[in-house]
């Protein structure tokens, strides 16, 4: 997408607004499938927690993607978007047995990540196909909040608990069809990924009737100029060869599953915000914009860096700015960042705003959530309207008259 296209969309739909480039999502999907084209049975399940707008789900559905979901609500959204139940994979954490049973009743593949629920579910539903999430005890990921495969993680069943796990499966005569792991997000070193894969292969040898192995995802995308990213093509060569060899050793062609979220949608996203005020203090120039961490929390939560550019004045003189929001707390998007000269009314563009951005938005300070637009075939399509005051009040119930003092 060009800056002029983005400026036009900000004018057409107002700010703040999220914009997603359909062509980029499609190219990332094709890049991943091409990298693993030597694997006979490959399945991509989009991790919809990254960006759950129904239009995005439908776009990926039409490309052949399945869905990775983490809640019954995400399962219901996937079904609403037209996914067949067998194309939806459900990997919750810390949910009740009742929710897992509800999801199972919808015909979705369930993935269980703790021994207690596994034993309870197996005792009640021994013939239901179940996947098991393993914790490989591998520290990987770009931030502690997104590193989920280490020894102190709440996710998965410890690989050291395999004997206990196998005993539960044997005692309940459960139908285990898959083994799953996810070490974390923003993985740079593919050797770490390959090391964790060997742990998954070893775990898989304990189960005779598997249909698939799910390697999660965690591929890193570039967030700034010259930033490093996961070498998908190299990983594809190495893991494909090892996976195919394991299938021969196992005696059966298994399906290889990935659950990319950020990899598919992050670079496709742009977040556009208008500059409300330029404020000079004794040491800092602040650019205050019409948004805050209620719309984009990643810089504050993860310390993530989103490239910011002034698309209203792309060729101006560069100055140092601290870009801040309008929330009544410190919500700093960038500190002393070099940006072309900013004036009030300019539109700033945040890059890599497709993953874990709108999906983590809130109504903090009673601010409305922004609109979402899909750029497709050279045209912007509104896929979520700006919220209104009525949306804030929708589920609120006034104090009953008889309860008033």
TrEMBL record:
Its EC number is 4.1.1.20. Pathway: Amino-acid biosynthesis; L-lysine biosynthesis via DAP pathway; L-lysine from DL-2,6-diaminopimelate: step 1/1. Pyridoxal 5'-phosphate binds at residues 218, 356. The keyword Lyase applies. Its cofactor is pyridoxal 5'-phosphate. Specifically catalyzes the decarboxylation of meso-diaminopimelate (meso-DAP) to L-lysine. HAMAP family: LysA (MF_02120). This is Diaminopimelate decarboxylase. It comes from Flavobacterium laiguense. The gene is lysA.
